[in-house]
Design a protein that fits this description.
- The protein has 194 residues and is mainly α.
- The chain has ten helices and two strands; from the N terminus they run E-E-H-H-H-H-H-H-H-H-H-H.
- A two-stranded antiparallel ribbon has the order 1-2.
- It has helices at 29-33, 40-52, 56-69, 76-88, 92-104, 111-123, 127-136, 146-158, 162-174, 181-192, and strands at residues 14-15, 20-21.
Length: 194
Amino acid sequence: LAKVKVGPPRGFAANRRGGRWGEEAAPTFEDLFRDRFLDERFLTALLIRLARKRLAKQALALLNWSQSQRSIVPNVYHYGAILSACEHSSSWQMGIEQIERMEGDGIPLDTIVASSLISTFEKASQWRRALSFLSTMHERSIERNIITRNSAISACGRGSAWPAALQLLDSLKSCSLEPDIITQNSLLSAVSKS
């Protein structure tokens, strides 16, 4: 994707105190996009912008609205942006719902989406859920690579579960994966928090 600078439409201001849309005069999506072009790429850019602002619920609402009102079919990039928003806001429950929705819509999960969900678990200190999801990736035909395993090791570190982090390190050898600098830093962080 090309880097696109996306801002709110004219006449739309964010509530500066909480960084959220103002509640007293919040426009609807229909108001915002009445005479504006909205396609899959522009929607992706908007969702990414909302993700960076940690506005997971608003990003999901926009995706739902665009699907029902503009007939935009969600794709892996849209869901990836939603998962990124979940990660930034530690909304792991919403992250699980989006994975289930992707699977229900027949959108194949990939390593990037999986790593994002595991990172969401990490940010929410849900290391057991991170390990559980990592263990189901094979059943879902998602490659468990060094990135997904590093995310899981980081989740263990955040949860002070250094024995589980060490087990993940040992599992790298059986998968013919080499630890990298991120693996080492994540492991050091896990052990130092014990």
